[in-house]
Every structure is written in structure tokens, then in C-alpha cells.
């Protein structure tokens, strides 16, 4: 067999078998990298991105606030979802409705006292541009 054809067949076979065994997939350039994610999470992120969703990562408002600091006297800008196509926001992860991701209409820029928020999940990380700490799980 031709060596080029062997390599091609190996790549094709690997790309089909990898998702079946729960292996991490490469992160497309349009999403934020720096983590490992499974194919289902990446596909969900890409679908949400196509519908215009981006996650605005929580950020400390003061020098005393830091990720992991549970001191209730610290202040944070809250994390929220923002849609660039509809100019809407969501405080919770947008859900599929009539074939598109739709938010709850809540959320937006604001701040809260009470210590560090939890670490972001992988979907929030992939759809954010900066900030945060390594996702949980």
C-alpha cells in the first residue's frame, strides 16, 4: 500500500474512533483554547457561537478580590452571557428553543459582594475571550 494512503487512512480512522472512546478533541481556532474538552462540549460551544453567544467572565472589582478567595467582603463583577446578534443577555447558560440558543433575558454587567465565584465550566471557558481560572472538571 502507498505510504501516503496509509497515513491518510490512519488519520481518518483515528478521527472517527476518537469520539467513540471519549478522548479530547482539538479546540477550533474560533474558541478559546488552553483546556481539554470532549467533542460534545466543543460542538455545543460552536453552535452557541454561531448563534452569537459569548461568556463574559467574572472579574474582581478590588485588589483584595482574587479567584478562590472566599472572603465575603470582596466584590466581583458577575459573569454573564451576551449575544452579539440579538443584543440580549442571560444569567444562565442559553438553552435550545426552536433550533436556536436563547437566553433568559437576565444578567448583564453588575457587581456583587460575597467572595470569589466558582471556577467556570468548560463551555464558559471556550466561549469567553479572557479572564477566569482553569475550568472545573
Give structural notes.
The protein is α+β, with helices and mostly antiparallel strands and 137 residues long. The chain has one domain. It is 26% helix and 20% strand. The chain has helices at 3-20, 39-50, 122-126, and strands at residues 24-25, 37-38, 53-56, 59-60, 75-77, 80-83, 89-90, 95-97, 100-102, 111-113. The chain has a 3-stranded antiparallel beta sheet. Strand 6 and strand 7 (89-90) form a beta hairpin. The chain is globular, with a radius of gyration of 19 Å. Mean pLDDT is 87; it is low at 3-18.
What's the layout of helices and strands?
Elements: H1 3-20, E1 24-25, E2 37-38, H2 39-50, E3 53-56, E4 59-60, E5 75-77, E6 80-83, E7 89-90, E8 95-97, E9 100-102, E10 111-113, H3 122-126
Antiparallel strand pairs: 1-2, 3-6, 4-5, 5-10, 6-7, 8-9
3D shape = globular
| Rg measurement, Å | 19 Å
Helical/strand content category:
alpha+beta
| Sequence of strands across the biggest β-sheet | 3-6-7
Number of beta strands: 10
Order of helices and strands: HEEHEEEEEEEEH
N-to-C span: 43 Å
Keywords for this entry:
137 residues; alpha+beta; 3-stranded antiparallel beta sheet; 10 strands; globular; disordered N terminus
Characterize this entry briefly:
The protein is α+β, with helices and mostly antiparallel strands and about 140 residues long. It has helices at about 5-20, 40-50, 120-125; strands at about 25, 35-40, 55, 60, 75, 80-85, 90, 95, 100, 110-115.
Amino acid at each position: 500500500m502507498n505510504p501516503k494512503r496509509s497515513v491518510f487512512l490512519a488519520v481518518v480512522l483515528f478521527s472517527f474512533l476518537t469520539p467513540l472512546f471519549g478522548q479530547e478533541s482539538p479546540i477550533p481556532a474560533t474558541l478559546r483554547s488552553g483546556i481539554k474538552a470532549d467533542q460534545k462540549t466543543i460542538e455545543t460551544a460552536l453552535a452557541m457561537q454561531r448563534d452569537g453567544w459569548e461568556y463574559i467572565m467574572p472579574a474582581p472589582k478590588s485588589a483584595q478580590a482574587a479567584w478562590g478567595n472566599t472572603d465575603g467582603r470582596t466584590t466581583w463583577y458577575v459573569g454573564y452571557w451576551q449575544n452579539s446578534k440579538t443584543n440580549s443577555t442571560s444569567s444562565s447558560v442559553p438553552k435550545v428553543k426552536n433550533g436556536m440558543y436563547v437566553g433568559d433575558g437576565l444578567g448583564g454587567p453588575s457587581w456583587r459582594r460575597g467572595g470569589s465565584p466558582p471556577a467556570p465550566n468548560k463551555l464558559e471557558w471556550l466561549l469567553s475571550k479572557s479572564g477566569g481560572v482553569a475550568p472545573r472538571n
